[in-house]
User: Fold this.
Amino acid sequence: MKRSKQEYEEAIRSSILFSLDKEKDIVAYKREALKMVEMLYCYMLTINTKYAEFGLEITETANACIKNYNSDAGDFLNYFNRAMSLSYNKARSKKRFAEMHAGAHISESERRIIGRYIHFAEQKGNYDLSEEDLQLIAESSGLDILELREYISAYNNSFLEDTIAYNNDGEEIDILDLIPVDGSIETEIESESAALDLLKHIDALIKSKRPSHRDLLSKLFTRYTILALSDNQAVFSEARKLSFFDNSMVDLFVTGNLPNAKEIGAALGMSEANVSMICKRFKSQL
Assistant:
């Protein structure tokens, strides 16, 4: 008989796996570890069948979590969910990147080319590189400039698309997988106080940025907050008191004209490349 999500959660949390001594109870530990991997895989499918195509990532993440877990990390299932969220987003980005190249395998050398572009852009402090700069990177990478532009475009688009999520009404939201929406595996924040702590952390980090980046990030995170939390008035009213919150965005939301990330960037005179890379760097710092 097929188990429900709740039943798998109970089975995972009641497992005897972590009460066993992996050095002394070798056979029992291996048996329970295999059972745990199977339960975690089935648990993911009860959340959403879209995870079926990421079976390898689920299995690898489950094994890594079992190997590295200790009680200081808190509840094991929450520990796994956080790790799986990162693994899933990484796998999804790679999949989109490959799809943009007609399914072709993306080699390590090609990834290094992107890394070279990112490093060069960060040194310059601008992701809109000149034709001369691009030509320099292309030549050092053994590419022509059109090929380099394709790699850069695919990389930037794969990140921008990866920030898209949907709430319970099917509305698109760009939450960077950090603000709670629907209780799915992407959700890492489980209480109102934790959500507020996150928003305060975002607020402090935005304050530390240069003015041009601060304007972009303030509008973006106001957008994320509106879409993810506007139904939770307790959290939303507190969020509006934070310095990053742009109240003019609420008016746009009410009239149905809330801009997306690309439109916000364009209004500030920023290219998609700049918006993508500023967001990516900010996400890694969070």
Remarks:
- The radius of gyration is 22 Å.
